[in-house]
Amino acid sequence: MRNPSTQCFPVLALALALSCAAAAGQTQQPAAQPPAAAGKVQAREVNLPVTVRDKRGALVTNLTAADFTLTEDGRPQTIKSFARESDLPFLSGLLVDTSRTESGAMEAERKAAEKFVDQILPGDSKSTKPGDQAFLIHFDREVELLEDFTNSRDKLDRELEQMGSTSAERSARQGPETTGDDTGRSQGGSSQNGRQLYDAIYLASDELMKPKDGRKALILFSNGVDRGSTETLNEALDAAERANLSVYTIYFKGEEERSESSFPSRRGGMGGGYPGGGGWPGSGGGRRGGGEEKSSVDGLKIMQEIATRTGGRYLEAKKKENLEEMYNQIAEELHGQYLLTYTPDQVDKDGGYHKIALKPKNPDLTVVTRAGYYAQ
């Protein structure tokens, strides 16, 4: 006779095996996510450069978050931090109009820009924060990157000294590579007199600034009139907003257009665009029709709009001798900025645009910051 316990063994073994399998299945199931994991879908932190002035126009540098109210799309937001000092690197770009109408001020512009570079990139390495860099672009009928991001004052100063208009001879030698752009410019009437202001803003914002983290500003010298750009003003400003940068504009009306020979060419026609010869890829063309200059275009208002929409500042140089003062004011303002950070109360996964309103509790103060931002 068989032992009853022996007869039961297969049943017990089967039950034990099923029990183990069930336990194993449970361990293979994903565990419930802890609350901390939800942080991955929270709204990204927004950084805003903020400038505050009193009713006399002087910078105010002793404020705290408690002195302001902040809303996003009309909803109150909590300011996370508000301080003047930041470890974030400061990135700046110089955009210089080298078309013929600005030729009379070019020497003064070079000297003023050089002194500005000296202020934002001090020669003493101890005074420069890690990551502080600047670049230089000039534009007329092409957009040309003269010096990429660098912390070298010498490199920028050297390029400023040699800066001039795009050489007609250089463009002619470039052959089929620029045929399309040249054709577009001739259709827009800007083959010789181009001023691709909007393209310069767009490309500096999208190609250079957007991939970088930190505090960002473009300093633009021009009369505000565009000829022959591929991009429209709206597209250029959208690119600046997506790159989270401010544009400071220096308006100089310039002189009446003269003969092409009145403006010296950059390095006698040598040099390249970005990269190499041919100007910046995508520059030129006027294919969307938004860049052709018309008599009704008000360059002053355009420069004001560029600065206002991006949270920068508009300055007007009545004469070329004012340029150094203009650049000094911008450098002072950049050094006196606050950096405000907050995390939006709602998550935007679609990359939409959000309006920001930062208001001081003291009505005698004036606040300048960006009008909004695009969610990542």
Explain what the structure shows.
The protein has 9 helices and 14 strands. The N and C termini lie far apart (78 Å). The chain has a 6-stranded mixed β-sheet, sandwiched between helices. β5 (90-97), α2 (106-120) and β6 (133-139) form a beta-alpha-beta unit. α2 (106-120) runs parallel beside α9 and α6 runs parallel beside α7. It has 376 residues and is α/β, with parallel strands linked by helices. The chain is 30% helix and 21% strand. The chain has helices at residues 4-28, 106-120, 153-162, 168-173, 179-187, 197-209, 233-242, 299-310, 323-335, and strands spanning 46-53, 68-72, 75-76, 79-83, 90-97, 133-139, 143-150, 215-222, 246-251, 314-316, 338-342, 353-360, 366-368, 372-374.
Question: Could you outline the blueprint of secondary structure elements for this entry?
Answer:
Layout: H1 4-28, E1 46-53, E2 68-72, E3 75-76, E4 79-83, E5 90-97, H2 106-120, E6 133-139, E7 143-150, H3 153-162, H4 168-173, H5 179-187, H6 197-209, E8 215-222, H7 233-242, E9 246-251, H8 299-310, E10 314-316, H9 323-335, E11 338-342, E12 353-360, E13 366-368, E14 372-374
Parallel strand pairs: 5-6, 5-8, 8-9, 9-10
Antiparallel strand pairs: 1-11, 1-13, 2-3, 2-12, 4-11, 6-7, 12-14
Helix pairs in contact: 2-3, 2-9, 6-7
